[in-house]
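Hey team,

Sharing the C-type cytochrome run so nobody has to redo it. Sequence (143 residues) first:
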Amino acid sequence: MKSSTCIIGIIGMFSFLLCFSACQSQEEILREQYVVEGMGQYERHCENCHQKDGSGLKDLYPPLAKTDVWKRLSAYQLTCIIKYGQKDTIVVNQKVYQNYMPGNTKLEALDIAELITYMREKWGDDKRIFPLDSARLALKNCH
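Structure output:
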């Protein structure tokens, strides 16, 4: 009796998980993939300077969390900054940062789309995916 109850429980749990995953839209699944991959990109390419929690590093590197950056800069502008770096000063929360940010020239459009999707969700209160085609277009138009 116990083994049949256990088997029924396992089948019930499997059915629940299958139904739950099937209830997600393709768009939601893609967004979640972007967020997970973007988190990895952030850890590899951004975290050292901007910190794990996005707080920045004192007066050297600007924060990404709790900033006006997400309202002032478009995803297109961020794409160019991530790929080619920031040579000029940048003002974040009314504070001037003058350190050079090197570009991540090896990142492809997909990497950047995932990275921006992750950062906007984490610190920009924006759950929208930054589409691959938009990242490609932004890269073509960087100055």
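The mean pLDDT is 89.

Ping me if you want the raw files.
A.
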